[in-house]
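>> received
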Amino acid sequence: MTGLVLCEPTELYNILNQVTKLSRLTEPNYLCLLGIVLGAAIECGRTLTHLTRHPIHILRGGYESFSAMYHFFRTQKIIWMPQELDAFQPYPVEIMPGRIYLGNFRQACDPKIQKDLKIKAHVNISMETGPFFVGDANKLLHIQIEDSLEANITPFLRHLCHFIEVHLELGSVILVFSTMGISRSCAAILAYLMHQNEQTLKRSWAYVKKCKTNMRPNRALVAQLSEWEKVVLGDIVTDILDPLY
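>> returned
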């Protein structure tokens, strides 16, 4: 099946929720074929491989599986006006399917998103105070650091990892967020993945980058993550001088 790639539902969810100036949901330059039979989808995909340089993604489980997992994306509406498409608001991306989400402050303040994703705990890494779980230290971890090169997240990393671990054991769904969801919250997710999986910054970075393509912890946070890698693995393995970081 050269040119064909099986796409997991969580991958499609994250693709749809990428955002630059506008939500990826408003992107007109793609073709989406929905079918019931996997075999038919593969045959259509094979035909399309001759028309593009890019791989054709076949959704594992099809629409039924995807809509069962993300029912809040379903709609009976067929025709959309351009202004309606531009008004689409992306959801937080999925880091651990159905368990850990990564987003921004606006998403953390949206009651519909909290309900749809069944969010039960927040990790807020910003100076802003959100409307949910205020005063409940069991459900809210608020790490108040600025979005600047002077920010120091290191003293909070052990507690951060413990907080997430406890909620995962309880079966809670967690939203990790910062103001824009690009720097501080991404650094927190990277630190957790390094700790939880005992893996390098490089490997964790590649994983989060696949989930959220515009993630970009600032240089000070990257340096602190490099030191965290030494704490987790006993040595610094990732070369943060690489332009990738």
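>> The mean pLDDT is 89.
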